[in-house]
Amino acid sequence: MALPITDGLLIVVKRDCDTCLLVLPVLDELGDAVIASQDDPSFPHDGVIDDTELALSWELQTETTPTVYRVEAGEVVESAAGWHRGRWEAVTGVNGLGAGLPDSRPGCGSKIFEPDVHARLLRRHSPSALRSRRVELGSAEDPFEAMFARGWSDGLPLVPPTEERVARMLTGTERAADEVVCSMPPDLVDCTVEKVAVNAVMAGCLPEHLPVVLAAVEAAATDSFNIHGLAATTYFSGPIVIVNGPVAKRISMNSGVNALGPGNRANATIGRALNLVVRNVGGSIPGGVDRSTLGHPGKLTFCFAEDEDDSPWDSLAMERGFEREDSTVTLFAGHGPTEIWDQLSRTAGSLAASFAGQLQRVSHSKLALMFDAVVIVSPEHARVFSEDGWDKSRLRAELMERLTRPGHEMLRGASGIAEGMPAAVAGGPIPKFRDDGLWFVRAGGRAGLFSAILPGWVNGDMGSRMTTVAIR
After folding, report:
1. Domain spanning 8-112: which CATH class is it, in words?
2. Domain positions in the chain
3. Which pLDDT tens digit goes with each residue over 363-375?
């Protein structure tokens, strides 16, 4: 929208503003100024610009009334909000304004930032029109029950994705609403930024969460992560979202006490939004494509941040080739945590032995190389390792050695257990994990000598690889 003047003064006011009433004498002194009124086209006098539809205020992003703007060549070059004699004189170039008025007084909030009005204006002035199909509900329909009935829900109530809410969600990213993020498996449907925003609304996200959700969606759709296979498996697993970098603090993610539990909006809704996209855009419906024998609660949402504050270790993202200042999302195909209890170990060697004992049980104590794992190391356990000079690479090397067993112990039928490794691999020692199949993330409360294992789904070409992408 072009401004109504090319050069001169433009002042935005509203009648319902005590400060605007206060500066009426100043408006008279600036007789050549163009005045726009947000709520009354006859205030302060006839002939002002009628901005009751707020198009001009939206274009200017007027936060406060009154605000005086100096316009040159059709562009705002300087402004002053509220009433402050010195700033108004600087903007207008007129000295001695408002004799007898106080030197300053705060202005009032602009109408464009009133909650209902702001949502309406966001929708109206969205850079690109929303293209998703509109679903009209009957006058007697409960919107929450209607979303259940239409199959959009993961079993929990959803936030209705109104046009206003979706438009507000899209303010969280500079990406165009119609940009195709990926072709989302299993149905290979074009998934746009807008479609992600719709599901993020339903999940309960805030706009500042949207870039993280978009990155998670991008990672999920890669061949390396293989969300189609993960969705269709009869195994327990689903996508686990691990966030690194400055974004985690910026959106107040939890990496500390109860990091895997309830209570944090970002953790809970980001993971849920990803799973809703896979369901509602990709078509993965339990009992349809999703054939998990038992599943696990984390298929609703499983998302947390790594605790990088005062960490003695490189973060997961840094291990995967990113810098500390990069914000990233890592997806791991895994399921619910298995505990590591060790209250007594005060040396790295002793604690590593406890870790190895629990890690041997991933998937099955006699199966190896097929499954990856992420170990969430609590700050107290991390301190034990770091005090002995063990970084993540040293811990990984020590565990890989401790988790390598003679092949004959792993054979099918050994120890009276039919399950196990085939005879073809039993000629020598067998490591539990492949070289890049064991990862460590520092998270959890600062008190409590407990860590956790996140067991993975099948790895490699036949399964899923941990996938990390930068957050735009």
Report:
1. alpha beta
2. 8-112, 148-470
3. 999 999 999 999 9
